[in-house]
From TrEMBL:
Source organism (scientific name): Acetomicrobium mobile (strain ATCC BAA-54 / DSM 13181 / JCM 12221 / NGA) (Anaerobaculum mobile)
Residues in coiled coil: none
Superkingdom of the source species: Bacteria
Protein name, as recorded: Thiamine diphosphokinase
One GO process term, biological-process aspect: thiamine diphosphate biosynthetic process
GO molecular function, one term: kinase activity
Enzyme class: transferase
Source lineage: Bacteria, Thermotogati, Synergistota, Synergistia, Synergistales
Amino acid sequence: MGSIITEAFAIERIPPISDEKVLVVAGGKSPSDAWLKTISRQFDVWVADKGIQCCRNIDVVPVAIVGDGDSSSLEDWDWAAERGAKIYRYPKDKDYTDLQLTLMQIGNIYRSPSVFVTAGLGGRLDHTLSNVFSLIWAQRWGVDTLGFIGEDESFILLKDKERLTVHFDEKPFALSLLSLTPRSDGVSLKGVKWELEDVSLKLEEPFAVSNELRKEERDVYLSIKSGCVGVYICLSEKRLKKAGF
């Protein structure tokens, strides 16, 4: 059984997470330097354009940089290239986003990669939605996409016939399930106040939101028979209040 450990929670999955673990640093809301430095030790780090700024801040040289360079400086790219990072540079007028191109290249380079993205949420809504659905798309390119991780919020993918165990060091503020396919069947959720047992979730009926762990519980168990569900984890009530919810 593979696992990923963050400062706030740990994730175990069946089938196991691959030993070829990759973290893509994208161009959304950036994590703190300390958090990224710690989490990056578990992964091969790749960068989608603007993410190179985060890596340079903490002196972590990525395996590769992918993108058109429109949201990062040539100096940052040169810094990484001089230290051995591979460069995949594309023209600004292109068919795919920087994140999509990064996932494609990862699929070409690795045999069976399991990929998390950080700095992939926040900012423009169209960018955020594109990033979410790009992770589903990337499965066609041979990439096992795990979801988005961050300091304050994460969005983990639960896909066909998978089982997840999430152990929290501290009780999160909220946990929500959202179907990312028209229909997700056989969804079960245990360890929370409002449990689910072999239910169907639909894209157009997002009712399974704002759940919470039982008082003394720190482990959440999830499973699915078919489809794809996004498991949203909000670690901080303070973050929600800042966002106006």
